């Protein structure tokens, strides 16, 4: 033991004694320090085990309840007796404060044990049902995917892969579905779907045997019994009601024949349905149909973030092919080279968020709009990099009184910033307002809030053929995030951001007065629609 | 709604007279300071010189008629106690500078060098003479040769501190707008009131106190018309019973308009109100041409009036390189 380790163990021993622990025994388990001790709490004496994760408190140590194992039916306590006083999310403490951390930890352990001990069996099980999946995870149960939610009385199937382990072939459950087969090299088998209460479950393990099965069957009512024992089923999805809806697990026994005794493997179903994934971000599914025109560096990231934010349907419009030149700042990778951007992006996004409805349209946006706006589109994102085209579309939208939000977004060269203009036909404040000189009331060829002084060459060449505008993936992403926020919140107005001048200085590009005004915070990076409306705008004032 | 910002900026370029930009001013200063260096009495203590007044403040303008004047500070390395009679030092300066093409006269606040051409006075340079007291505060020699000895005094006067305060009040483009507005206001004063009736430093310090940088909230470009209108409104709002007091923000902390008579003050106020109304009227014009015609009446012929928008040919190329992408 090093001097630091010795100092650590001495500190803990002292702290335990100071905190009232008795019968303190220290040992090394797999070279890790472990203390066993007893802690009095009124009439109770709790036999406990302290297991630091290494030789410091940088991670909160675990405390095990030394009782008859495995523990079943006690909330916040794993099968191995680990007392879960905290979900360990967002904890903050001084790891050198051994006594302070232990004092809090042991007080929490005592409080929890006393509280749970004082509950009725029914109350305990009710809370335990909430944590059933976590309990099984701690027991080493396997995981299988679940991409969708099940309706009542729905047929359920398992996708099973026969995995070779040496000479043996072991069936492994990969995914549970409602009839679709998506995984390669998997066999689809039917399994049952059974709603049970936690009271009907005998103590679960990661592998179950015939005794457990018989015990389980004895706890079921007649209708449940029919489902559980149906000869069609090679397994059972158990939906165990709890305060969050259900705990979901699958018992998979496969085709065992008559000679083998009953045995099953327990799988925790990892929810991957969109509703679950979005709710896990703190958001909610948005019943929106967004059309993204232009899926370059900005448009692809706008689409990505809209998908992750819960937008239910996207139409992606771009006729370009993905090339190796795009790799430096696009969301897509090498697999997409020489393919239509919209098609590769649709596949990519479907992987990012199962269940999203994506329509790729490998065509020009004007050609698509000429055929009519796709049904139920409530937002159009213009990320084409072609300002005249976007102005023309916005003018058409205002003239024809389209009802949707229109978001035009672009990034400036050399990291100087980006623009997001969100407008809605019928409301003054549009893209064209920014193309009128307020002094002369005359139209001007460039946006008056451009961040680069006019008249400079900003494009670059690396090979002599193939000009490009220099900006980074970070610039594109910053702009895309702002655009996505406007879409998600259906927020009208003009948002812009400004970066620093490092790249611009290196490239001898001069920022505009607007850039400096924004950079020095003389003017706001957000303008409401009325703030930038031009009263004589030929587009939105008519 | 016209702001005539381009015209305000062109007007500023037209009237601007800065020490940095003018080789004439630099040459005059060099010649004078060389004379001082070469001819000053060996009995005089060592000294340093610095620009003061509008050239140091970057608010100098070309006068409507005649040559521009200039202010120089001469700061001697001595204490007031070393020269209880400050006239001694002023005489050193006068004697060193007297030449055939100029007259040098000791006035109470400074030594004035007047240049002549064909017998006519063309311009003058004022040299203020300072010493430094034990606290490091500059003291101005205030005396004439005709003053009785007890009236020849050293008075606190922090010209360099004033320059720092005013030049540091605003930064970057805001500072540029401050200087444009002060210069425009000074030219307006020359045009409407006369150079001597309202002191330049009074206008500059009023702007130091009450000017607020003003710009378009969308593109961040400065709007001098509104900035000037706001400054005038601030000045008018502070008019007391019959006078506007503009305190020097350094020693001797005096009112810079104290020498103006009540009649001058009244005239000044009325003309400021007229200017404010003209600025408002110009702003309300739909055409910059009309706005500038109104402004020219206030600022004089150097304020440009563009052609009417309806007759203006489009001079832009029609296509610009935006540098934007997606």
Automatic annotation (TrEMBL), chain A:
GO cellular component, as recorded: cytoplasm
Among the GO molecular function terms of this UniProt record, one is: ubiquitin-like modifier activating enzyme activity
Annotated Gene3D superfamilies:
NAD(P)-binding Rossmann-like Domain
Listed InterPro entries: ThiF/MoeB/HesA (IPR045886), ThiF_NAD_FAD-bd (IPR000594), Ubiquitin-activating_enz (IPR035985)
The THIF-type NAD/FAD binding fold domain, residue ranges: 287-500
For this protein, the record's Pfam families field holds: ThiF
This protein is called THIF-type NAD/FAD binding fold domain-containing protein
Q: Which organism is it from?
A: Methylomonas methanica
TrEMBL record, chain B:
Q: Which InterPro entries match?
A: DncV-like_NTFase, DncV_C, NT_2-5OAS_ClassI-CCAase
Keywords carried by this UniProt record: Antiviral defense, ATP-binding, Magnesium, Metal-binding, Nucleotide metabolism, Nucleotide-binding, Nucleotidyltransferase, Transferase
Q: Give the region (Disordered) as residue ranges.
A: 302-326
In what residue span(s) does the Cyclic GMP-AMP synthase C-terminal domain sit? 177-302
Has UniProt tagged this entry with the keyword Nucleotidyltransferase? yes
Q: Name the reaction it catalyses.
A: GTP + ATP = 3',3'-cGAMP + 2 diphosphate
Recorded GO MF terms = ATP binding; metal ion binding; nucleotidyltransferase activity
Protein name from the UniProt record = Cyclic GMP-AMP synthase
Origin species, per record, is: Methylomonas methanica
Q: What's the source species' lineage? A: Bacteria, Pseudomonadati, Pseudomonadota, Gammaproteobacteria, Methylococcales
């Amino acid at each position: 033991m090093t001097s630091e380790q010795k100092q650590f163990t001495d500190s803990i021993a002292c702290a335990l004694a100071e905190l009232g622990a008795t019968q303190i025994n220290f040992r090394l388990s797999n070279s890790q320090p472990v203390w066993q001790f007893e802690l009095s709490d009124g009439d109770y004496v709790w036999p406990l085990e302290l297991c630091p994760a290494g030789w410091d408190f940088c991670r909160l140590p675990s405390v095990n309840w030394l009782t008859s194992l495995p523990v079943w039916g006690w909330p916040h306590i794993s099968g191995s007796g680990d007392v879960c006083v905290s979900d360990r999310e967002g904890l903050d403490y001084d790891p050198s404060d051994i006594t302070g951390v232990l004092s809090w930890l042991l007080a929490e352990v005592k409080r929890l044990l006393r509280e749970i001990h004082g509950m009725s069996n029914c109350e305990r099980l009710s809370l335990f049902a909430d944590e059933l999946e976590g309990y099984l995870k701690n027991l080493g149960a396997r995981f299988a995917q679940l991409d969708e939610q099940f309706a009542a009385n729905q047929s359920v199937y398992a996708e099973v892969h026969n995995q070779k382990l040496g000479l043996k072939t072991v069936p492994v459950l990969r995914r549970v579905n409602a009839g679709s087969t998506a995984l390669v090299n998997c066999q689809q088998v039917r399994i049952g779907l059974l709603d049970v209460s936690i009271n009907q479950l005998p103590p679960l393990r990661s592998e179950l045997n015939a005794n457990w099965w018989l015990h389980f069957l004895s706890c079921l009512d007649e209708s449940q019994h029919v489902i559980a024992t149906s000869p069609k089923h090679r397994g059972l999805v158990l939906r165990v009601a709890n305060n969050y809806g259900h705990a979901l697990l699958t018992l998979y026994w496969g085709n065992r024949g008559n000679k083998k005794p009953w045995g099953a493997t327990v799988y925790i179903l990892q929810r991957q349905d969109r509703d679950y994934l979005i709710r896990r971000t703190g958001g909610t599914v948005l019943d929106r149909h967004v059309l993204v025109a232009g899926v370059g560096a900005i448009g692809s990231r706008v689409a990505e973030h809209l998908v992750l934010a819960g937008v239910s349907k996207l139409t992606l419009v771009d006729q370009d092919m993905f090339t190796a030149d795009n790799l430096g700042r696009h969301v897509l990778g090498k697999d997409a080279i020489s393919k239509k951007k919209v098609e590769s992006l649709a596949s990519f996004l479907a992987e990012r968020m199962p269940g999203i409805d994506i329509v790729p349209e490998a065509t020009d946006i004007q050609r698509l709009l000429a055929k009519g706006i796709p049904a139920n589109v409530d937002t159009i994102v213009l990320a084409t990099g072609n300002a005249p085209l976007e102005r023309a579309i916005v003018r058409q939208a205002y003239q024809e009184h389209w009802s949707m939000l229109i978001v035009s977004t672009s990034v400036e060269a050399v990291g100087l910033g980006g623009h997001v203009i969100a407008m809605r036909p019928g409301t003054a404040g549009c893209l064209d307002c920014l193309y009128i000189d307020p002094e002369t009331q005359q139209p001007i060829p460039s946006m008056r809030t451009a961040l680069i002084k006019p008249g400079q060459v900003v494009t670059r060449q690396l090979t002599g053929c193939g000009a490009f505008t220099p900006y980074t993936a970070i610039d594109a992403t910053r702009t895309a995030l702002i655009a996505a926020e406007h879409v998600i919140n259906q927020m009208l107005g003009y948002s812009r951001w400004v970066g620093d001048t490092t790249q611009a200085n290196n490239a001898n590009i001069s920022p505009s007065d607007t850039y400096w005004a924004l950079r020095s915070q003389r003017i706001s990076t957000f303008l409401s629609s009325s703030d930038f409306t031009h009263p004589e705008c030929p587009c939105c004032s008519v | 709604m016209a702001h005539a910002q381009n015209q305000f900026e062109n007007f500023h370029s037209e009237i601007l007279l800065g020490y940095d930009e003018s080789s004439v001013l630099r040459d005059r200063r060099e010649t004078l300071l060389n004379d001082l260096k070469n001819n000053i009495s060996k009995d005089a203590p060592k000294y340093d010189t610095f620009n003061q007044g509008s050239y140091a403040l970057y608010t100098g303008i070309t006068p409507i008629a005649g040559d521009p004047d200039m202010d120089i500070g001469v700061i001697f390395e001595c204490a007031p106690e070393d020269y209880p009679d400050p006239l001694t030092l002023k005489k050193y300066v006068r004697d060193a500078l007297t030449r055939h093409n100029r007259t040098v006269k000791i006035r109470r606040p400074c030594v004035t060098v007047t240049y002549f051409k064909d017998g006519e006075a063309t311009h003058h340079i004022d040299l203020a003479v300072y010493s430094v007291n034990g606290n490091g505060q500059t003291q101005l020699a205030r005396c004439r040769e005709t003053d009785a000895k007890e009236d020849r005094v050293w008075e606190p006067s922090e010209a360099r501190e004033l320059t720092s305060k005013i030049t540091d009040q605003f930064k970057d483009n805001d500072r540029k707008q401050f200087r444009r507005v002060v210069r425009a206001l000074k030219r307006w004063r020359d045009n409407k009131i006369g150079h001597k009736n309202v002191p330049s430093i009074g206008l500059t310090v009023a702007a130091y106190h009450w000017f607020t940088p003003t710009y378009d909230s969308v593109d961040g470009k400065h709007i001098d018309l509104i900035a000037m209108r706001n400054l005038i409104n601030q000045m008018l709002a502070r008019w007391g019973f019959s006078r506007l007091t503009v305190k020097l923000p350094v020693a001797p902390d005096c009112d810079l308009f104290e020498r103006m008579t009540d009649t001058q003050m009244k005239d000044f106020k009325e003309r400021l109100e007229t200017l404010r109304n003209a600025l408002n009227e110009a702003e309300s014009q739909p055409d910059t041409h009309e706005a500038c015609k109104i402004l020219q009446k206030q600022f004089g012929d150097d304020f440009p009036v563009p052609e009417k928008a309806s007759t203006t040919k489009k001079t832009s190329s029609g296509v610009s390189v935006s540098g934007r992408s997606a």
